From TrEMBL:
InterPro entries: ConA-like_dom_sf (IPR013320), Kinase-like_dom_sf (IPR011009), Lectin_legB_Mn/Ca_BS (IPR019825), Legume_lectin_dom (IPR001220), Leguminous_Lectin (IPR050258), Prot_kinase_dom (IPR000719). One of its GO terms (molecular function) is protein kinase activity. Keywords: Lectin, Membrane, Signal, Transmembrane, Transmembrane helix. The chain crosses the membrane at residues 294-316, 417-437. It holds the Pfam family Lectin_legB. Residues 359-447 form the Protein kinase domain. Residues 1-24 form the signal peptide. In the N-terminal section; belongs to the leguminous lectin family. Belongs to the leguminous lectin family. This is Protein kinase domain-containing protein.
Length: 447
């Protein structure tokens, strides 16, 4: 690899080193196990939007019998976990977007108020862009949307509803649905054929364990349900889901979102209680590197310019040397008895490997006349001992010195003067090669 290529490679590696780490890296895992619910510490952990409350060891998503000062009908509420999660990275909705997975399970009890025969409306597990309760979200809107906002893409929410009141767009009053930015479900399934009745009756309380599992790699969501008890162990998850659907969260929810529950009542009322909740979320780090981003934004183009300047400077310098050497070679042709040229200047400068082993390396012998003398051996001359003068001034003056001394010594012939063996004008720094003799003078040497 030549010097220009080496310099270019070095700068490219430097640019790569300075680049920020991939944004997609650093998946983290959050695991939370909540319940039975008491006022302390859960009011510190959750944002509770009235008339929701925490009492009777449960999250009361709409008013219950302990809510003083709230009526039961036409209400909506939310209970949200306060921590937000970065659920995806990359361009939203693109193939390159990476989405985290999550698993959640919770035990619910939906029951009528004062044994009313007409119950409603229902509750939902929700992924929302904020902790706020949407105004006017009572009735059919399940605490999710309202008459104005329902169906808007700007809602950025996904919910799994447990619906107990039939609207015109519902299959019945006992179903599970997947809601995207609207209470009109993208997918739903009646639970009646499965022998499951969400709403408790006046004589018996029903408890259900709901599982919602989202696969960020396959971008799919599955919902499972099984009967449970109020305080007993968790039931095993059924092998078969009751609802499954394709879902790309990066196309729907905000990059930073919250998990929780919402519910509502209308003229039909019910109690919407969450007794226990488990949540596991794969999320991406929220760490920010503003200084790195700024420095990289400014530094990488600067490094590129510097790299180009360095490589260009090296190429131009080498071109000047080649052109200058061409001038020297032209001058050499006009000398009488053109001296022998040694093309392999690297061997002159470094010495043959065999010579290095047998006679050691080239030895610095002295300094004079804008040059440094080295003493060594040439394999091509049967290990003849020679002296090499390496001119040390800048390129233009060094070449003038070289030509002047070469012209003089090439014309001299005397038994007490050392004999010129040859030259190497094609090297980066011109060299004179002289037979070494400790008993003679080279007129400008030091030995």
């Amino acid at each position: 690899m030549d010097q220009a290529a080496k310099l270019g490679t070095a700068v490219v590696l430097l640019c790569l080193w300075a680049a920020p780490p991939c944004a997609a890296g650093g998946l983290k895992i959050f695991t939370g196990t909540f319940g039975p619910f008491t006022e302390d510490p859960y009011y510190k952990i959750f944002t509770v939007k009235e008339p929701a409350s925490i009492n009777n060891d449960a999250l009361q998503i709409t008013p219950d019998s302990a809510n003083q000062g709230f009526k039961y009908n036409d209400q909506s509420g939310r209970v949200m976990y306060k921590k937000r999660f970065k659920l995806w990275v990359g361009p939203n909705g693109s193939e390159s977007a990476r989405v985290g997975s999550f698993n959640t399970s919770f035990i619910v009890n939906l029951s009528p108020v004062n044994n009313n025969s007409v119950t409603g409306e229902g509750m939902a597990f929700v992924i929302a862009p904020d902790l706020d309760l949407t105004p006017g979200s009572d009735g059919q809107y399940l605490g999710l949307t309202n008459l104005t906002t329902d169906g808007n893409d700007t809602n950025h929410l996904v919910a799994v509803e447990l619906d107990t009141f039939k609207q015109e767009f519902d299959p019945d009053s006992n179903h599970i649905g997947l809601n995207i930015n609207s209470v009109r479900s993208n997918a739903n399934v009646s639970l009646t054929p499965l022998g499951i009745k969400l709403m408790s009756n006046g004589t018996e309380a029903f408890f259900y364990n709901i599982w919602v599992q989202y696969d960020g790699n396959n971008k799919s969501i599955e919902v499972y349900i099984a009967e449970a008890t109020q305080e007993g162990p968790y039931p095993p998850r059924p092998e078969k889901s009751v609802l499954s659907s394709h879902l790309d969260l990066s196309r729907v929810v905000n990059q930073y979102s919250y998990f929780g529950f919402s519910a509502s009542t209308s003229n039909a009322t019910q109690l919407n209680c969450v007794l226990r909740w488990n949540l596991t979320v794969e999320y991406f780090s929220e760490k920010k590197f503003p200084l790195v981003k700024v420095s990289v934004a400014a530094g990488v183009p600067t490094l590129a310019v510097v790299a180009a300047a360095v490589v260009l400077g090296f190429i131009l310098r080498k071109r000047r040397i080649i052109m200058s050497n061409s001038s020297i070679l032209g001058a050499l042709k006009n000398l009488p008895g053109t001296p022998r040229e040694f093309i392999n200047s690297r061997r002159l400068e470094e010495g043959d490997e065999q010579v290095r082993r047998e006679k050691q390396s080239w030895v610095r012998a002295g300094v004079r006349g804008y040059g440094v003398f080295f003493r060594g051996f040439l394999q091509s001359e049967n290990l003849e001992e020679v002296a090499v003068k390496r001119f040390s001034r800048d390129s233009i003056k060094g070449q003038d010195d070289f030509l002047a001394e070469l012209t003089i010594i090439n014309r001299l012939r005397h038994k007490h003067l050392v004999r010129l063996l040859g030259e190497s004008a094609s090297s980066i720094v011109p060299l004179l090669i002289i037979y070494f003799s400790s008993c003679r003078s080279d007129d400008f040497g030091t030995y």
